[in-house]
Amino acid sequence: MANFQDIQQRETGLKQHLTSAQMVMIAIGGAVGTGLFMGSAFAIGFAGPAVLVSYAIGAFIALLLIGCLGEMTVAHPTSGSFGAYAEFYLGPLAGFVVRYAYWAALVLAVGMEVTAVGMYMAYWFPQVPQWIWVVLFSVILIGVNLRSVKVYGAVEYAFSAIKVAAIVAFVLIGSYVVFGARIPGIGLQNYQTGGGFWAKGAWGMWLGVIVAMFSYLGVEAIAVAAGEAQHPQQAVQRAMKSTVLRLVLFYLLTLSLMLAIVPWTDAARQTSPFVRVMEVIGIPWAAGVLNFVVLVAALSAMNSQLYTTSRMMFSLARAHQAPRVFGVTNARGVPVAAILISSLGAAVAMFINAFWPKESFVWMMSIAMFGAMFAWFMVFVTHLAFRRRREREGAPRTAFRMWGFPWLTLLGAALMAAVLLTTALTPEFRLTLAFGLPWLLLLSVIFWWRSR
Description:
By secondary structure, the chain is mainly α.
């Protein structure tokens, strides 16, 4: 394909209604979900207080990704995003594999988030089977996505605003409790309990990076949403810069305060460490209120992921790599069939919840993270080809450029490869590569067969 405009023209039909503020909230909605409110318990169990270093490393990788993806998105804003970039700069096979791997990951992530919704609802209704909540909330959010991108953007903005307000309130209250109230048993000395800051050693800290990376997955939604932004180049630049800063502050500040209020040995055993913190502080009804917030966080992340994965399927159909029906939009610019097929994760979650409610969350997180991490790795690889080809062809400089090229791009790729390989050495995440590598092989065989 001689010109990327051919791909952009191929993916027309979606409505450009999203503002830069909504794009920021879409990214926050995808990244601040169960990874922070529930997944942090797993990370603390792996790393102890050194989980702060784990999340800092994850934030650094996310920052490198945003730099690479931001430069490519400003040059080529389209809903196919990094899948389309891989197709154009690496070849059709790369575009096919990246899109389908990422699509499958987010389909399962949608199921994982709605699984968490069932677990949070059990806080108030322990006698009600979790699968009932999975069905109810899945129907509601699928309906939101089917309305229009304008409705989706407004709902996601509201969801994310609730999360941001709750996190800010948590930081303010937690700061007072830790540094102002002087309550016995609460303070920075808790970092030294249970073996100290490095209680689980450097290896435990590195295992915490796996969960941290899963927590940050979702920031790439900005690039996908660029295809439906009102002013994509300007919106992408503003959204990417502010999103990374907010995510780093949200994750590191909240975890720092939480570990000072609740000893890590206690926090690591809880379904949601944040609810436990509210219970320890003793604020009336605070635990119930925060449980509502983490419920909204899971719904928000599910909403964002359903949007993103449906657009990836839309891009596949427009590239003639999926049934044509998934590339059809209605009068409101909504790819209805792509949204419905991308809702399969909710059905998978309902099935797993009905038979294995205790194991469902970890299983789905382990499987889902492969495709998303592989997509991040491929963003770095694609950026290397993108920059070198544009320099070779004398293309004009983009308004947003990745710094430290090529070394920081290579560092990002190396770190993502290391995180993926580490999952094979971790019993809790062994399913990641056990599922992911055969999936990549199957996708490659399917592409080869279709090409013939």
